[in-house]
């Protein structure tokens, strides 16, 4: 009752009051900038409920896609729910009713009454009910895009509002018709002529839009940039554009603008030639003889616009038949392949007025510099996220599902062929495919497999089960491939099974389902395969992507590919897995619970900070920039977390200078002392946890001297905490007096400042800045990067919820005078009114790092069961402090990590208050067979933990 009352007081009387988020009443809206969406509230409620009742007038297939993985997870727990919808205005397509029939743990009824316009969602939670009532139907636009207002309300069982709502729902349920396959069949037959006319008109409008030959928003900007580049004397240009955004049309528009006498278009596969030629013909117009093909079967070398395969044009006999200035405009499609010798031969032979390269993925694994090839002239760049934001691509719904498991054995890299094509696995795959479905229920799908024999056999097994499928590999002729693709486009085939020949360079716009039955080899290939379905087409509203996730070591690449976050920070990848709001538009990313855990396991095991991985990121960035990157470049280009370079985990590299020495790219030399300065700043401030320290240093290297009062003014002017104890903490850190133990020994003699009445840089630092320009450059770059990384932290708070901190960071930020060695902190530490608790939830079966097994437990998003250290009693100081919490004004902060596999950093979960009645002394067994006293208590979070982070922390395979 107390929590419900607190929620009412906060919502309706005083917003500054504290209340548990579980019980809060709140407004639910869609806000793209803050990444707040109605879908998330529904997903969170479903994940914790024991029963649900949804009543909405309108439902779409795309709307269901936002919730399907959550329904599937509920089904595994034996939880069912009910849904009432309508046939009002014939809005609901028969296809959505077919999709609902596939969700076996939802009972569905249709209220066939005029004016049914309800939008309500009711959830039974463990000890309360929650309701979301407002404007949102169960459609993709309503859940993520539209301007919507909904109110979340909570109630105990006897609340009048709840009783009234349940009574009305039960009345509607009694009056409604049960959804059956026969009802859907009947509804389809009588689906009103008006509805058919609306749909037909919509299709005709879509087709009309697609038939208009004009640049889209991306192409228009790119064309302006290309024209400007040529006007400024540029002879080469590179366009980086996500698959499906219309690169071929863009190049045709640019050729129309450039008006070349003769043009050469180079592709790497013959089946692309005709499509490219037809596109150019639509845009440029002119007689057929102007458009020729140069390939193994055709030699139209005199055509004004020549479309050639690289295999044919690169033959020496072919090149010899062309003068070097035969073409004044040359285009190379999929130009990331241009590192091959065949491309070099062609590029070196011809001297066009302009050379255009196009690719969705300029990154290479062989260190070839695509950017250098095009004089570093990036005319335009748009990646997946931006393309979705600009509505250039078809929306997609990605489902990361759990692959087949038999007697504890899960599909993995070494799985035998017989298990990949086992009858039970095929049955399992088909069930998942049917459950997650396709737009408009007419399948046109591509299935990517791990090996040829698997693809071929699965195709046969699907055919036996009534599907119409074909298998394609690189062994098939071009003509056969084109015929199979045409059969898929016409609807004569449901699926094409393949291994990797459709990763790029193929255009099947009507594809509406992508199935991935293989491990992710690279984020580039993942996006290439996903991109096969992202072209817009009037036959589909969205693309379904079903990724069967086994125990693959490369699973960590999935969130990397979907988010576009390649900085290789493990915490970022974890967050991109349990919090997927980063995807733009009305697309969605959904993981089944066990599939999500498999990704977390892969992230934990991945060696993302290896020298090989860091070197690869460095070379890619250097190639793009055409210079030695600064440390800040890694952050700005989102290519690598700079802290990974200088963390000291790789070959004793403690500074960016150390790394540049390894790369043999250092522009000059610095002294050991100067490198030590860089090491201290890198280790202590590059995590970004406190902005004060690098900010003050940045001002001081400009020659500014400070007093404590002027430091406070500096902090206040930058919106930072400027308490006296904060200033003292910063000064203690910069003059190194904070550090103790091993760190004090390592840092000794490299004090950054002198802190007397006048605060200035240390003498050694001043001399270095005066005498070594290169050191100054490295220092300024490092401090700039520290400040940029600190933007992720809330400057209005000492500690930012859900960010990660090391133990010594916490001690420093909470204003301890001296660092405490991690081993001495153990599970918690207290000084004055600040109490910091550090918890590792899953310690592993072989854990031996403590005297006894501590069974700390997150009971709910707002409740923690916690134990003191061994040999503590109810009379121990920490127990007494908890018992007298109301009188002591104690600030109790909780930091938590899932397991030691996550490293040494802890998520900050917020402040807690002890529940006095729960505090009790116990005796528990120790490692030596004895028992010791310990105090157990429940701690209530003042603000409930973000639900997705809570689920991540408590779940384990």
Q: Could you characterize the architecture of this molecule?
A:
InterPro entries: DUF3427, DUF8090, Helicase/UvrB_N, Helicase_ATP-bd, Helicase_C-like, Helicase_Restrict-Modif_Enz, P-loop_NTPase, PLD-like_dom. This protein is of the alpha/beta class and 957 residues long. It folds into 5 domains: 194 residues, Endonuclease, Chain A (2-Layer Sandwich); 166 residues, 3-Layer(aba) Sandwich (Rossmann fold); 212 residues, Rossmann fold, CATH 3.40.50.300; 175 residues, no CATH class; 151 residues, PUA domain-like. The chain has 41 helices and 35 strands. The strands form 6 sheets. Strands 27, 28, 29, 30, 31, 32, 33, 34 and 35 form a 9-stranded mixed β-sheet that branches. An 8-stranded mixed β-sheet has the order 1-7-6-5-2-3-4-8, with helices on both faces. A 7-stranded parallel β-sheet has the order 11-12-10-13-14-9-15. Helix 22 links the parallel strand 22 and strand 23.
* CATH superfamily label of the largest domain: P-loop containing nucleotide triphosphate hydrolases
CATH class of the largest domain: Alpha Beta
CATH topology of the largest domain: Rossmann fold
pLDDT < 50 runs, ≥5 residues: 197-212
Mean pLDDT: 90
């Amino acid at each position: 009752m107390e929590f419900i009352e607190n929620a009412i007081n906060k919502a309706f009387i005083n917003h500054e009051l504290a209340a548990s988020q579980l019980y809060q009443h709140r407004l639910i809206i869609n806000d793209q900038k803050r990444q707040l969406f109605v879908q998330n509230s529904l997903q969170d409620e479903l994940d914790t409920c024991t029963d649900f009742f949804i009543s909405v007038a309108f439902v779409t297939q795309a709307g269901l896609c936002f919730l399907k993985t959550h329904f599937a997870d509920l089904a595994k727990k034996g939880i069912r729910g009910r849904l009432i919808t309508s046939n009002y205005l014939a809005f609901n397509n028969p296809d959505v009713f077919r999709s609902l029939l596939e969700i076996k743990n939802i009972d569905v009824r249709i209220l066939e009454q005029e004016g049914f316009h309800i939008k309500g969602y009711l959830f039974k939670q463990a000890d309360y009910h929650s309701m979301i009532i407002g404007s949102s139907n169960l459609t993709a636009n309503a859940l993520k895009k539209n301007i919507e207002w909904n109110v979340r309300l909570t109630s105990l069982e006897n609340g009048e509002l709840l009783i009234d709502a349940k009574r009305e729902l039960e009345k509607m349920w009694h009056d409604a018709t049960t959804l059956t396959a026969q009802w859907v069949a009947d509804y389809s037959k009588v689906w009103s002529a008006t509805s058919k006319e609306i749909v037909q008109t919509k299709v005709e409008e879509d087709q009309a839009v697609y038939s208009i030959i004009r640049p889209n928003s991306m192409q228009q900007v790119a064309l302006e940039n290309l024209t400007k580049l040529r006007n400024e004397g540029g002879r080469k240009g590179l366009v980086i554009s996500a698959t499906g955004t219309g690169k071929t049309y863009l190049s045709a528009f640019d050729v129309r603008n450039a008006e070349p006498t003769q043009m050469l278009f180079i592709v790497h596969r013959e089946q692309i030639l005709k499509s490219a030629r037809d596109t150019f013909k639509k845009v440029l117009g002119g007689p057929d003889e102007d458009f020729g093909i140069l390939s193994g079967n055709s030699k139209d070398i005199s055509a004004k616009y020549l479309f050639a395969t690289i295999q044919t044009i690169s033959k020496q006999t072919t090149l010899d038949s062309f003068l070097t200035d035969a073409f004044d405009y040359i285009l190379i499609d999929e130009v990331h392949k241009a590192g091959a010798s065949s491309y070099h031969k062609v590029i070196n032979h011809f001297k066009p007025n302009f050379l255009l390269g196009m690719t969705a993925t300029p990154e290479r694994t062989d260190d070839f510099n695509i950017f250098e090839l095009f004089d570093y002239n990036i005319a335009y760049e748009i990646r997946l996220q931006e393309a979705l934001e600009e509505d250039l691509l078809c929306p997609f719904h990605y489902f990361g599902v759990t692959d087949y498991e038999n007697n504890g054995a899960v599909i993995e890299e070494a799985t035998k062929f017989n298990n990949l094509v086992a009858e039970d696995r095929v049955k399992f795959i088909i069930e998942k495919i049917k459950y997650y479905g396709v737009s408009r229920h007419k399948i046109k799908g591509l299935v990517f497999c791990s090996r040829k024999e698997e693809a071929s056999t699965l195709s046969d097994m699907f055919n036996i089960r009534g599907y119409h499928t074909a298998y394609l590999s690189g062994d098939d002729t071009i003509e056969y491939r084109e015929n199979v693709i045409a059969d898929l486009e016409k609807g004569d085939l449901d699926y094409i099974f393949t291994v990797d020949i459709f990763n790029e360079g193929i255009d099947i716009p009507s594809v509406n389902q992508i199935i991935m039955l293989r491990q992710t080899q690279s984020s580039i290939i993942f996006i290439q395969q996903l991109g096969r379905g992202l072209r817009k087409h009037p036959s589909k509203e969205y693309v379904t992507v079903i990724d069967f996730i086994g125990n693959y070591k490369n699973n960590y690449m999935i969130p990397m590919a979907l988010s576009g976050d390649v900085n290789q920070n493990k915490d970022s990848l974890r967050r991109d897995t349990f919090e997927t709001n980063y995807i733009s538009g009305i697309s969605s990313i959904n993981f089944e619970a066990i599939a999500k855990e498999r990704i977390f396991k892969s992230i934990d095991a991945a060696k993302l900070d290896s020298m090989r991985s860091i070197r690869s990121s460095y070379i890619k960035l250097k190639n793009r920039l055409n210079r030695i990157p600064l440390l800040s470049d890694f952050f700005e280009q989102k290519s690598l977390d700079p802290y990974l370079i200088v963390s000291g985990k790789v070959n004793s590299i403690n500074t960016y200078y150390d790394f540049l020495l390894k790369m043999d790219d250092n522009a000059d030399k610095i002294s050991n002392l100067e490198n030590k300065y860089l090491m201290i700043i890198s280790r202590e401030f590059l995590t970004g946890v406190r902005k004060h320290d690098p900010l003050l240093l940045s001002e001081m290297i400009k020659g500014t001297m400070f007093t404590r009062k002027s430091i406070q003014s500096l902090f206040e002017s930058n919106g930072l905490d400027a308490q006296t104890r904060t200033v003292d903490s910063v000064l203690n850190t910069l003059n190194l007096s904070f550090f103790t133990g091993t760190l004090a020994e390592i840092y000794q003699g490299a004090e950054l400042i002198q802190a007397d009445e006048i605060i200035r840089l240390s003498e050694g630092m001043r001399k270095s800045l005066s005498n070594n320009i290169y050191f100054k450059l490295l220092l300024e770059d490092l401090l700039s990067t520290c400040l940029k990384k600190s933007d992720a932290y809330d400057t209005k708070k000492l500690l930012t919820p859900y960010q990660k901190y090391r133990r010594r960071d916490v001690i420093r930020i909470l204003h301890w005078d001296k660092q405490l060695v991690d081993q001495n902190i153990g599970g918690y530490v207290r000084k004055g009114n600040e109490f910091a608790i550090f918890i590792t939830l899953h310690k592993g079966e072989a854990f031996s790092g403590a005297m006894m097994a501590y069974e700390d437990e997150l009971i709910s998003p707002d409740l923690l069961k916690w134990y003191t250290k061994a040999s503590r009693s109810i009379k121990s100081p920490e127990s007494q402090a908890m018992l007298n919490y109301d009188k002591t004004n104690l600030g109790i902060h909780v930091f938590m990590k899932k397991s030691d596999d996550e490293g040494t950093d802890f998520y900050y979960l917020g402040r807690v208050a002890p529940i006095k009645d729960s505090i009790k002394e116990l005796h528990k067994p120790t490692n030596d067979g004895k028992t010791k006293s310990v105090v157990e208590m429940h701690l209530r979070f003042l603000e409930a933990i973000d639900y997705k982070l809570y689920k991540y922390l408590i779940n384990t395979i």
